[in-house]
Amino acid sequence: MSPEKISVMEKDPAGLNRILLLSLIGFIFIIVYFSYISPQIQHFKQNTLLPTKSYTSSPYTLSTTETFSQTTITFSSPIESTSSANLTRLIKYALDVINRDRVEYGLKPVELGNNPAAQYHAEDLASMLCLSHWGSNGMKPYMRYTIFGGKFFVQENVAAVFMSGRATVPSEQEMLSFISQMEHEMMYNDASSDWGHRKNILDPMHTHVNIGIAYNSQIFVIVQDFENILIKWSEFSTKNTTVTLKGRFLQNLRPYMVIVYYDPTPSPLSSKDLRNAPYNGSYSFGELLGAIVSKGYQANVPYIYATRWRQEGLDFEIVFDFKTFVKGEGVYTIVFEVEDSKGGINFATSYSIFVK
Q1: Residues 6+ away with beta carbon under 8 Å from 243
Q2: What is the DSSP string of 153-211?
Q3: 270-289 pLDDT, tens per residue?
Q4: How confident is the model at residue 33, as a pLDDT?
Q5: Nearest Cα to 68, choosing from 335, 329, 351, 245?
Q6: Residues 6+ away with beta carbon under 8 Å from 135
Q7: Rounded to two decimals, what is the model's pTM?
């Protein structure tokens, strides 16, 4: 299933032509934007099994004597040139622009989230003078989101205005115009990204968005990290490769399946790296390893059974050990699929576990 999302909104402000005319004298105005993710999150069908069927582990099973530990990641702040004085106003305006688009298409507005990964990434990119879904530490959006405490599902849009040869930072009026123009491009001029930005902005399951904005005299960057906050967690824990997901759905949903993806351990990237393939394009959740399902079901990918899988009303609890799928050191991302009352499959988590 492809959770690809992209969107855009309002038309350029009346003063934009005047601003651009003056600005073109001093700098080159370029807008660059990426789709948040390539369509590699797939929905895998479950099929009912006969009760007499027994579970056989996949070929990836490791010796039971092996143990795995999780690494603890910390971030140092990138060099900031963004003024905090007007950052709040710019973020509020960016949120308003997103919600105007959503309301225009009959969708509920999203709330402003509190995960700082988007702001960290915007500042990182501004300091590197480049645009990418990867950061200078090599991490993808869902990894950053997890490190900064995120336990829901995240999808990212990023965009930037590059200003060549300029000596001063843009005015607040210019930056408001940049925000409007980039949103408009993602909503209405996004065919080259298969309308992924537009789909992301207009995804009806999104409930929140974390907005990061950073700038200096050479670049203006905006990051939109959309979230699906569909669960009130009572327990979300990991111990080695054992995961416990316990909580209450905030909508009429039921657990469907858990997918496990793999990425190699991230390594630092230079500005040159980030400006070239594959880091200057869309991102995926890495290699699909397999699925965790409830006993009595099967999937059309390698799968194992959860050790506990229950639901009572909106309350649920799922416990599983994904050790079967571990192929060594790296990042294992848990994508929790949930089913709505109409049979639609949505995404509730994109949680990364760093294994060494």
Answers
A1: 237, 258, 318, 319, 320, 321, 322, 334, 353
A2: EEEEEEEEEEETT--SPPPHHHHHHHHHHHHHHHHHS-GGGTTHHHHHHT-TT--EEEE
A3: 999 999 999 999 999 999 99
A4: 54
A5: 329
A6: 120, 121, 124, 125, 144, 269
A7: 0.82
